[in-house]
From TrEMBL:
Keywords: Disulfide bond, Glycoprotein, Immunoglobulin domain, Signal. Residues 22-109, 114-191 form the Ig-like domain. It holds the Pfam family Ig_3. CDD domains: IgC2_CEACAM5-like, IgI_hCEACAM_2_4_6_like. It comes from the Eukaryota. InterPro entries: Ig-like_dom, Ig-like_dom_sf, Ig-like_fold, Ig_sub, Ig_sub2, IgSF_CEA-related. GO terms for cellular component: cell surface. This is Ig-like domain-containing protein. Belongs to the immunoglobulin superfamily. CEA family. GO terms for biological process: heterophilic cell-cell adhesion via plasma membrane cell adhesion molecules. Transmembrane segments: none annotated.
């Protein structure tokens, strides 16, 4: 029987303290890069020792690409000559022997454009008294600002142009200019509109179309060639 008065010593206990992984977050030198112009560096924070860094884009592992570089221990992701396809979202993950934790996703707002605009019209030719309606679109981020001209003279701003009760004096070369204030770029295109009197010439009313050729940003005076193919007539 053990003597109650005697003392005994217990064996030492070792406690392994496991620190909680910090939630990572992503910083960047530029969240609003310009397409084919800027290099973007994404950094996974915080900088820690003994952790492994992993990157994901659109929820998937990074694709193999010479434009994607991960110097050091993959903490930094470099996107060279960023394009509109590089918007993301991007996530970074840190891992240790015990577990892992992922950052919140971030996206890039890639600026581009405008592309050469296109002019849309429900009609190819008009006659007096009708309403002339034209619309213009150019792919751009942020969305482009538009203005209209006729024979080089300013008409109005806006993506759509509507002129009621037109006359033959409204015939001319209509231009649409698209400008992106973020990229500083501006591009234009033109379409020739012909307004006839009360009666449309028989050569046009029998089903022949008049096609307009688009003018690019730096093109000179264009020639508009009538189509030789009648509308709605199948080839034999």
């Amino acid at each position: 029987m053990k003597n109650p008065g005697s003392s005994s010593r217990s064996d030492p206990v070792t406690l392994n303290l496991i620190s909680e992984l910090p939630k990572p977050y992503i910083t960047s030198n530029n969240f609003n890069p310009m397409e084919n112009k800027n290099v973007v560096a994404l950094t996974c924070e915080p900088r820690t020792q003994g952790y492994t860094y992993l990157w994901r884009v659109d929820g998937q592992s990074l694709p193999v690409s010479p434009r994607l570089k991960q110097p050091g221990k993959n903490r930094i992701l470099i996107l060279a000559n960023v394009t509109r396809n590089d918007t993301g979202p991007y996530e970074c993950e840190i891992r240790d022997r015990v577990g892992s934790i992922c950052s919140d996703p971030v996206t890039l707002d890639v600026l581009y454009g405008p592309h050469v605009p296109r002019i849309f019209s429900p009609l190819t030719y008009y006659h007096s008294g009708r309403t002339l309606y034209l619309s213009c679109f150019a792919d751009s981020n942020p969305p482009a600002e538009y203005c209209w001209t006729i024979d080089g003279k300013f008409l109005q701003s806006g993506q759509e142009l509507s002129i009621p009760r037109i006359t033959t004096e409204h015939s001319g070369l209509y231009g649409c200019s698209a400008r992106n204030s973020a990229t500083g770029r501006e591009r234009s295109t033109f379409k020739r509109i012909k307004v006839f009197g009360k009666w449309i010439p028989a050569s046009l009313s029998t089903g022949f179309s008049v096609e307009s050729m688009w003018l690019s940003e730096k093109s000179q005076e264009n020639i508009f060639i009538p189509s030789l193919c009648p509308m709605g007539r199948s080839k034999s």
